[in-house]
Write a structure and sequence with these properties.
402 residues, alpha/beta, Peroxisomal Thiolase, Chain A, domain 1, nine-stranded mixed sheet, two-stranded antiparallel ribbon, 11 strands
């Protein structure tokens, strides 16, 4: 019977670039920036890495479909390097590959790295028809924009649960205000200016009811992790260890979009994936046991309904929890402590590892002004694709107590 990977793998070190409009560097320089911090944090030389996983989603003209660009950029020591891509879960997918490789006993020390240069691909930046994505995608699907599709989740959520329009808009605004307050404390965030409820509610509408501040931006960035076993980490002098408690993935099989049971007001994969993650981590009551959340807040409504899909807020009640400050930095379960996608943007290959980086810092007490007291478990969540067909990745990290 499968026992999962709980406490079989720990994070030896992590690194993360500053996210933003990084016109001055390419993907290679971003990889080196994150990797340099990661190696210094891990306290090893790169020759100690035995295998690596490279997460990269969209732009393939300059980097190609293989993992060779990462091996070259980092001058890895002729080891196995594998490129992975899984929509917005790409960074977590790279982490999953490295963690599973160590947990299996195939390797002792592995690297996971995710990177994306969105500003150069046409995905909200310079047109690049050769990328196979970006600006041309919305010419093929002109009525299927991301804001439009997720705005439908907001209206479906309000209709199903009978939420007054004004209350929903206030709750969505509170989600963004909270994240911007957190991001203002983070030197690596793209957007570092607090916003008020009044500013958010008065902002231009992008796709009703989502306004400008309900949508995350477009940015460049990279993040990475080196993972190993607890025994090897201790032999290298590491004492305070962050352990992987669970890693789960759920992918739509067409059910949501093909049958009428799904009403478009939440994400079926997240609900399934989170339950599997809790079982693997040994968590029985997430509302009581989880200390912090890093969620896929591509839009404020995504974050809001995810609170319910994670079985933390009751169905139809997350908006009340938001307005009550339950997910604020000083609330019961702080969310988006680093600012989230709202303040970092979403360089797709990097986002999952960027979330893990924040949880890692918090668990080690190294998050500076954002630090919360005595965290136990941190959960990260990615959602990629469309509301009706998507992939969800969830990781749960905690202190290693072995």
């Amino acid at each position: 019977m499968a026992t999962g990977i709980r406490d079989k793998v720990v994070i030896l070190g992590m690194g993360c670039t500053r996210f933003g409009e990084r016109w001055d560097v390419g993907a290679e320089e971003l990889m080196v920036e994150a990797f340099t911090e990661c190696l210094a944090d891990a306290g090893i030389e790169k020759d100690g890495i035995q295998a690596a996983w490279y997460g990269h989603c969209l732009e393939e003209v300059g980097t190609g479909k293989s993992a060779t660009p990462m091996a070259v950029a980092l001058r890895l020591p002729h080891i196995a390097v594998t490129r992975v891509e899984n929509y917005c879960a790409t960074g977590t997918e790279a982490f999953r590959g490295a963690v599973y490789a160590v947990a299996s006993g195939a390797y002792d020390i592995c690297l996971a790295l995710g990177v994306e240069k969105l500003k150069d691909t046409g995905y909200g930046g310079l047109p690049n028809p050769g990328s196979g994505f970006g600006s041309l995608t919305w010419q093929w699907f002109p009525n299927a924009s991301a804001p439009g599709l997720f705005a439908q989740v907001a209206t479906a959520y309000a209709a199903r649960h009978g939420i007054p329009e004004g209350d929903l808009k206030k709750a969505l605004a509170a989600v963004s205000v909270k994240s911007h307050a957190n991001g203002a404390l983070n030197p690596k965030a793209h957007l570092r200016r607090p916003v008020t409820m009044e500013q958010v509610l008065a902002a231009p509408i992008i796709a009703y009811p989502l306004g400008l501040f309900d949508c995350c931006g477009v940015s460049d960035g990279a993040a990475c992790a080196v993972v190993t076993t607890p025994e090897i980490a201790r032999s290298l002098g590491k004492r305070d260890l962050v352990s992987v408690k669970a890693l789960q993935l759920s992918v739509s099989n067409g059910y949501e979009g093909a049958f009428n049971e799904w009403q478009g007001d939440h994400f079926y994969t997240t609900s399934k994936c989170s339950l599997a993650a809790y079982r693997e981590a040994g968590i029985e009551d997430p509302r009581r046991e989880i200390s912090m959340l890093e969620l896929h807040d591509c839009f404020s409504i995504t974050e809001l309904v995810t609170y319910e899909d994670l079985h933390i807020s009751e169905r139809g009640k997350a908006w009340r929890d938001v307005l009550d400050g339950f997910y604020n930095r000083d609330g019961k379960i702080p969310a988006q402590l680093d600012g989230g996608l709202k303040c970092f943007g979403h360089p797709i290959g990097a986002s999952g590892l960027r979330m893990i980086y924040e949880v890692y810092l918090q668990l080690l007490g190294r998050a500076g002004d954002r630090q919360i007291p005595d965290p136990r478990y941190g959960l990260t969540h990615n959602l990629g694709g469309f509301p009706s067909q998507n992939v969800c990745a969830i990781s749960i990290l905690g202190r290693y107590d072995g």
